[in-house]
Structure prediction request, 162 residues.
Amino acid sequence: MESGSISGCLNHYFENSEQLDTKLWLATNQLTVGGLLIQRIPEEGGQSLQGYSNWETLSTLANTITDHELASDAGPLLIYKLFHELDPRGFDPWTVEFGCSCSRERAARALRALGETELKQLFIEQPSLTLDCHFCGQVYQYDQADLEWLLSDQPPRSDTLQ
Ligand SMILES: [Zn+2]
Prediction:
């Protein structure tokens, strides 16, 4: 944690890990959370992308947003108010849904990466192995009967519960 706020931590992450110019603002009121994220898209073929060529102007305009506006008015109208001189264009909104790409097979790959010797040793020490997806909470359990396919590149047994 490099900051005392979620937006500060995410800004630090973008600055150090993504290495893309990114700025994030978050604000809340009692009912909603609003956010604004701007990111400088890498240039294609050395040519500046139209509308993103003036990062400083975009940042300065975005910095004029107030927490009240962000928490209560976030949306296309606010984008227009902030950036109308840059001629912003909007995309159709889509519904945000929670999803996770984990699977029994992907979790098994993590076990396979341990190597045959260590995997066999783990099954000697305990009757089953459990892997928890820390993103979605799905639990994958493997028992002795799974060892053969864990050591092969075969798909999982179809009768195995997930
Ligand atoms: Zn998951």
